[in-house]
Amino acid sequence: MAGTPRFLTLADVAEVLNTSSAQVYALVRRGDLPAIKIGGRGQWRVESAQLEEYISRMYAETRVFVDEHPYVESDAAD
Fold it and tell me: What tens digit of pLDDT does each residue of 49-77 get?
């Protein structure tokens, strides 16, 4: 993990996940993505390791979803 900062801003996380900062904030506020609040202005930070764990969990959840909802050709037409 050389060169990777230990803590990321919500904007940094949004860039990694290719989503909006608002979506990342929602993940944090729901407790889906662990984060800490620092400083007098309460800036959120996500530890890189927590982000990687979140990504791994999402892959696992997606595998379960795909297994439980197999793709059929009619899905593509919807």
Answer: 999 999 999 999 999 999 999 888 876 65
Q: What ranges make up the beta strands (E) of 1-78? A: 7-8, 36-38, 43-47
Torsion of CA 68, 74, 77, 78, to 10 degrees: -50
Domains present along the chain, CATH in parentheses? 7-70 (1.10.1660.10)
Give the containing element (helix H, strand E) for 58.
helix 48-68
pTM score, two decimals? 0.82
What is the C-alpha radius of gyration for the chain, rounded to an integer number of angstroms? 16
Show Cβ contacts of residue 23 under 8 Å, excluding neighbours closer than 6 positions.
Answer: 14, 17
Quickly count: other Cβ atoms within 10 Å of residue 45's Cβ. 19
Q: What are the tokens at 68?
A: 């439980």
